[in-house]
Amino acid sequence: MQKFEKGFFVGAATAAHQVEGNNIHSDYWAQEQLPHTSFTEPSGIACDHYNKYEEDIKLLADAGLNAYRFSIEWARIEPEEGKFDPAEIEHYRKVIACCKAHGVEPVVTLLHFTSPKWLIAKGGWEAESTVEYFKRYVSYVMEQLGSELHIVCTINEANMGLQLAAISKRFRLMAEQAAKAAANAGKSAEGSVQVGMNFQKMMENMKYAAAENAAVFGTPQPKIFVSERTPEGDLLVLRAHAAAREAIKTICPEVKVGLTLSLHDLQAQPGGEAFAAAAWEEEFTHYLPYIKEDDFLGVQNYTRTL
User: Fold this and answer.
1) Could you tell me which of 36, 49, 87, 169 has the fewest CB atoms within 10 Å of its CB?
2) CATH architecture of the domain with residue range 11-161+225-305
3) pLDDT tens digits for 101-124?
4) What sign does the CA torsion over 69, 75, 81, 83 have?
5) What is the per-residue DSSP string for the chain?
């Protein structure tokens, strides 16, 4: 099998909630249990990676990959505010050791969408207090595991909330236009806006979910990480990243630190240059002051936008 040069990594990535299973203290788990949840089905045990990580990492190594990016689940490490679980730290220590035993570089992400349920009840990713809560969690993890790591990603797709706000605004406009066109034609617009889901049905469910969220989180619109972000909340996420980077560098100066962004391949068509430049400013360049001291930037690209 062809070998990569030392320091060149080709790997695979997972998110804890998507693969580990039984993430019972997280915001996602709580939302999955709501009668009018937006999730099609609960995560349950997922693919049981929490218990099968040794088998999974061996498969990864056998495929010729030499890096594994995985996330440490905040809701496992700090299931209650200020109460850290050393048993979960030991679990992730074993995952890191397993990677190294198979010649795989562990690349750790400290926040991959999910948060502890208690954090969201305190205002989540629009609350100023979250910056310090995140820094405290990151500091604890790095004090325990930092000496075993070389590369750490603080936050996965830090701009996701702002992208969701833009997408939601566009789909709402589509729904309004569809309803207006249907009304003019004397027809129903039900189900006319499909974006991988029935958008109208999702909006209808949100009316019921508001009361259900209030009962669970104390607010009808919990500010989970993957929710529509205000401009203020967007910058709060970046301040949380900067605080985490400072903590990591203080504890483990040699560790490489960065974050990832979800970036479209924006391609201006004739006459659309100014619009494309404004979109790129919103999606990327306004983050530069917050990431200029990072060691790397991870880019996740799924599509282009004309």
Assistant:
1) 87
2) Alpha-Beta Barrel (3.20)
3) 999 999 999 999 999 999 999 999
4) negative
5) ---PPTT---EEE--HHHHT---TTBHHHHHHTSTT-SSSS--TTTT-HHHHHHHHHHHHHHTT--EEEEE--HHHH-SBTTB--HHHHHHHHHHHHHHHHTT-EEEEES-SS--BHHHHHTTGGG-THHHHHHHHHHHHHHHHHGGG-SEEES-SSTTHHHHHHHHHHHHHHHHHHHHHHHHHHT---TT--BSSSBHHHHHHHHHHHHHHHHHHHSSSS---SSSPPPHHHHHHHHHHHHHHHHHHHHH-TTSEEEEEEE--EE-PPTT-HHHHHHHHHHHTGGGHHHHTT-SEEEEE---EE-
What is the rounded CA–CA span in Å between residue 79 and residue 209? 24
β-bridge pairing 265-266 and 304-305:
parallel
Domain ranges of the chain: 11-161+225-305, 164-217
For residue range 7-29, what is the model confidence (pLDDT) as tens digits? 899 999 999 999 999 999 999 99
